[in-house]
């Protein structure tokens, strides 16, 4: 029997404390990919083909969550 594979969640958040809190809450159950900007999140989209969910801050400098 194969072990359960963790789903990848891409968290896009420019606030480090919020990011750390989310990872501490959900990091055991899910593989959390952290991006601190929309531009960094786009790099994950190019590299990863199995992102199950994206959770994004809406108000970030450079690129908003809506623009992402």
TrEMBL record:
One of its GO terms (biological process) is phosphorelay signal transduction system. It holds the Pfam family Response_reg. Keywords: Phosphoprotein. Residues 8-68 form the Response regulatory domain. InterPro entries: CheY-like_superfamily (IPR011006), Sig_transdc_resp-reg_receiver (IPR001789). The modification 4-aspartylphosphate is found at residue 57. This is Response regulator receiver domain-containing protein. It comes from Candidatus Electrothrix marina.
């Amino acid at each position: 029997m194969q072990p359960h594979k963790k789903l990848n969640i891409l968290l896009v958040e420019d606030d480090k404390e919020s990011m750390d809190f989310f990872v501490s809450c959900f990091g055991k159950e899910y593989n959390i990919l952290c991006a601190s900007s929309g531009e960094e999140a786009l790099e994950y989209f190019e590299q990863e083909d199995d992102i199950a969910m994206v959770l994004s801050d809406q108000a970030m400098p450079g690129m908003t969550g809506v623009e992402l």
